[in-house]
Amino acid sequence: MIEEGRALFLQIAESVEDSIIDGSLPEESQAPSTNELAAFFRINPATAAKGVNMLADKGVLHKRRGIGMFVAPGARDLLLAERRTAFADRFVDPLLVEARKLGLGADDLSRLILDRAATADAVLASSDRRRAEASVTTEGTSR
Q1: 2, 26, 101, 109, 121 from 41: Cα distances, Å
Q2: pTM (2 decimals)?
Q3: Of 71, 72, 68, nearest to 33 (Cα)?
Q4: How wide is the angle at C-alpha 59 spanned by C-alphas 55 and 65, nearest 5°?
Q5: pLDDT in tens, 15-59
Q6: How far apart are CA 132 and CA 143, in angstroms?
Q7: Which is nearest to 61 in space by CA: 41, 97, 43, 37?
């Protein structure tokens, strides 16, 4: 899960952020300790602490003296807003620049995105059906 070339403490912070965003680490719940993170990722506890402290400085985590770090109220909304802005900067802005070069307007882009989303949804639904069918077949043969 650790990526080469990216600072470990940033990867730790992003992992905790992902857990907050997906709801597996809800607001007001206790965050993993630096020792738990260090053991899980097999890194130095000081590196894990740097990632956790970064989240605390950002207002995503807050410390309860003698107990540990907890997810701050509003942390999920804060992270979603931050990630949406980063998504727009990284993907939408370049998309708009390229669309202008190709003479595509907002309506053209909307249709293109909706068509691609429908195709992706159909592929995912088909994959989910195959997985469910395989699961039923496996359960039937294992009895």
Answers
A1: 8, 21, 44, 41, 34
A2: 0.75
A3: 68
A4: 85
A5: 999 999 999 999 999 999 999 999 999 999 999 999 999 999 999
A6: 17
A7: 37
